[in-house]
Amino acid sequence: MSKVSVLEVKHLKKKYRDRTVVDDVSLYVQEGEIVGLLGPNGAGKTTTFKMLLGFIKPDQGNIFLNDEDITDLPVYERARKGISFLPQESSVFRDLTVWENIMMFLEFQALDPVEMKEKAKSLLDEFGIYHLKDQKASTLSGGERRRLEIARSLVINPSFLLLDEPFAGVDPVSVQDINHLIKDLIRRDIGIVLTDHNVRETLRITDRAYILAHGKVICEGSPQEIVEDRTVRKIFLGEEFTLS
């Protein structure tokens, strides 16, 4: 039986001058599960997320990928090891077509021209945007753009995908659409870490979630356990919050 892939952080700390923004944070995600990273503004979510990716180096603590310490590895080395990232801001090349956007990333893979075209078509088909392949990315709707970005993030066949605000800038119908797309990624045995201000939608698709406040993990558990936690309701969700 093959070993389950795990991305894990242990006792991360980050301080800016006299302010500790991440204080002894530990969490993990396994392949085939969706884990939420949530909390109020200033909780330390973004800093933790950036340390996972390698954009920020922790002052203390370690990041492990399948028991290998990757704390000091740069972003591109983490990508080579199977950690992909979807940023909040639009990352498509607006003046290129949908096809050109995905082929640009495939150029960096060890594939011959035929294999590249087959993979590009397969990914665009999977995400329902092959019919848009000749359109400029600037003409895409928010939901279509997100589909392209997610498809492109899968070019490296990642083991883990980190999604930063995937519901940002899209209409309510597209939010549901992206919700289903993220769930479908589990079929690929990808582990997903997701942070978004749309707490209800995030909790609807996560298997587990970590709630941060003042740089610390104050709660970890299933969506239902998160919602029922008194401390979380008091400082983050509010007393009237429901998943429905």
* Relative strand content: 25-35%
**CATH architecture term of the largest domain:** 3-Layer(aba) Sandwich
Distance between the first and last residues' Cα: 38 Å
For the largest sheet, list the strands in their spatial order.
6-7-8-3-9-10
Order of helices and strands: EEEHEEHEHHHEHEHEEHH
By secondary-structure content and strand pairing, the structural class works out as alpha/beta
The CATH topology assignment of the largest domain is: Rossmann fold
Instruction: Report helical residue fraction.
Output: 25-40%
Total count of helical runs of at least 4 residues: 9
- Which whole number gives the mean pLDDT? 91
User: What's the main sheet like?
Assistant: 6 strands, mixed
The number of distinct β-strands equals: 10
Description of the molecule:
- The chain has 9 helices and 10 strands.
- It is globular, with a radius of gyration of 18 Å.
- The strands form 2 sheets. The protein has a 6-stranded mixed sheet, with helices on both faces. A 4-stranded antiparallel sheet has the order 2-1-4-5, with helices on one face.
- The protein has 2 domains: 167 residues, Rossmann fold (3-Layer(aba) Sandwich); 46 residues, no CATH class.
Secondary structure layout:
Blueprint: E1 6-16, E2 19-30, E3 34-38, H1 45-53, E4 60-65, E5 68-69, H2 75-80, E6 83-86, H3 98-106, H4 113-126, H5 142-153, E7 160-164, H6 172-184, E8 191-195, H7 199-205, E9 208-213, E10 216-221, H8 223-228, H9 230-237
Parallel strand pairs: 3-8, 3-9, 6-7, 7-8
Antiparallel strand pairs: 1-2, 1-4, 4-5, 9-10
